[in-house]
Design a protein that fits this description.
By secondary structure, the protein is α/β, with parallel strands linked by helices. The protein is built from 15 helices and 15 strands. β14 and β15 form a beta hairpin. The longest helix is centred in the first third of the chain and has 34 residues.
């Protein structure tokens, strides 16, 4: 009798153990799936120099090979007074150049219900992020006014604080008040967006120097996979208002005297500073499909690391760390490295950094790569200069546009390859636009961004799945009239919006539906 009791008890315990094992296995498998969950980019907004105030305008700038660098405009600082060809001259710069946004002083405070006094105290980077975040949500087909109370996160890359520096230099410190804090402290760049839109997900300002905005994208993807938010705005901004940082960089001999990023070229001698703002709207791919969203591209993997090399200066890049970074991002994406057809490089155009970066990319992505399938490598910095905290998001938006248009835009100022780079590897620089033919699998691009403080980021982005693109106009049964309601919060804004619609709808690539 006791023997049968023991056997029954043993069988019960065995069933319980098997049940526990199955639950643990299911939990582990769910965690693995969540860690590799593809992240859909469902909306984008941007403001870059050269009139690139939308993704479509940005693509035209890239496709046409536009160089948006100009002389420093007088509303920023006196370029003549701060110029000196001697890099050791204190308080001076060897470069009179940069890429600058138009109308940086313009902001529709009434639209966001912000009082004029408070708006005046706000860093233009904060104003830009508000506007571009709103535009990115609209691009995603998400009503910005309907997001209040949602678990939408905001992840913003930021580095410079020129606005407050300029106010102090002008002797305005005595008039500082609490609006100065809310308008200039870095935490309010993300906090302001979350507050005004009523978003209740995580809200972070990320500062890792030049890699800030791409690190912000990485953190947003991690938060989506961890279930901390259901959607996320990720991006960054950079505005140049005070000459002191430019002068300091000039003395380090990092600026190109001719104001051009000649990335990967034998004549590379530094970079030029630039402005910009970009924001992407992210969702888990499964959620985007459930919601019927248009998917622009899919982030398959990303990675962040630090150079961690104490043998050189803190600003010296580590090729070994860069190689490991790309390999980790590719592994996280779960793809063959040879599937990466294009890399939007960090590519500042420095004689030290360029060879290190290409060597790392070749080591991570070119082992066993056939010569007839080269790895194309370019950098948007040849168009815009180095937009610093916004550089990573500029590169990501460029990569998404290249995937969508199946074309790799021209990389400017490339005439003769840097002799310190091993050009025998199957790596090519597109000095002219290159078609990106379809293969047996979706196209894949990598995006790199390296911070001067040593923090590096890389993102693997894949073209949208065939069932995720709803750009095509619906089939029409004969001719019919389409009604387009247009609304705004002021008469002037209404007229401007109507003009924008007119220009958009009369463009040759605009299907009315």
């Amino acid at each position: 009798m006791s023997g049968s009791t023991d056997a029954a008890e043993y069988a019960t315990r065995l069933r319980q153990a098997l049940g526990t094992i199955q639950r643990l296995r299911a939990r582990a498998e769910a965690a693995e799936r969540a860690a590799a969950e593809p992240i859909a980019i469902v909306g984008m907004g941007c403001r870059f120099p050269g009139g690139a105030d939308s993704p479509a305008a940005f693509w035209r700038l890239l496709r046409d090979g536009v160089d948006a660098v100009t002389e420093v405009p007088p509303d920023r600082w006196d370029a003549d007074a701060h110029y000196d060809p001697d890099p050791d001259a204190p308080g001076k710069s060897v470069s009179r150049w940069g890429s600058f946004l138009d109308g940086i002083d313009r902001f529709d405070a009434q639209f966001f219900s912000i009082a004029p006094r408070e708006a005046e105290a706000m860093d233009p980077q904060q104003r830009l992020l508000l506007e571009v975040s709103w535009e990115a949500l609209e691009d995603a087909g998400m009503d910005p006014t309907a997001q209040a109370g949602t678990r939408c996160g905001v992840y913003v890359g930021i580095a410079a604080g020129d606005y407050q520096t300029r106010q102090v230099a002008a002797g305005n410190a005595a008039g500082f008040d609490f609006h100065t804090i809310t308008g200039n402290f870095p935490s309010f760049l993300s906090g302001r967006v979350s507050h005004l839109l009523g978003l209740q997900g995580p809200s972070l300002a990320v500062s890792t120097a030049c890699s800030s905005s791409l690190v912000a994208v990485h953190l947003a993807c991690r938060a989506l996979r961890a279930g901390e938010c259901d959607a996320a705005l990720a991006g960054g901004a950079n505005v140049l208002l005070a000459p002191e940082v430019t002068s300091t960089i000039s003395r380090s001999r990092a600026l190109a005297p001719d104001g051009r990023c000649k990335t990967f070229d034998a004549a590379a001698d530094g970079y030029v500073r630039g402005e910009g703002c970009g924001v992407v709207v992210l969702k888990r791919l499964a959620d985007a499909r459930r919601d019927g969203d248009r998917v622009l591209a899919v982030i398959r993997g990303s990675a962040v690391n630090h150079d961690g090399d104490a043998s050189g200066g803190i600003t010296v890049p580590s090729g070994e760390a860069q190689r490991r970074l790309v390999e980790e991002a590719v592994a996280g994406a779960g793809i063959d490295p040879l599937r990466v057809g294009y890399v939007e490089a960090h590519g500042t155009g420095t004689p030290l950094g360029d060879p290190i970066e290409l060597r790392a990319l070749a080591g991570a992505l070119c082992r066993g790569r056939p010569a007839d399938r080269p790895l194309w490598v370019g950098s948007v910095k040849t168009n815009l200069g180095h937009t610093e905290a916004a550089a990573g998001i500029a590169g990501l938006i460029k990569a998404v546009l290249a995937l969508r248009h199946a074309e790799i835009p021209p990389h400017l100022h490339f005439r003769e390859g840097n002799p310190m780079i091993d050009w025998s590897a199957p790596v090519r620089v597109p000095s002219a636009a290159e078609p990106w033919p379809a293969g047996g699998e979706p196209r894949v691009a990598g995006v790199s961004s390296f911070g001067i403080s040593g923090t590096n980021a890389h993102v693997i982005v894949e073209e949208a799945p065939a069932d995720g693109d709803v750009d095509e106009a619906p089939a029409e049964d004969g001719e019919r009239t389409l009604l387009l309601p247009v609304s705004a919060r002021s008469e002037g804004a209404l007229r401007e919006l109507a003009r924008a619609y007119r220009d958009r709808l009369t463009a040759p690539d605009a299907p009315p539906a």
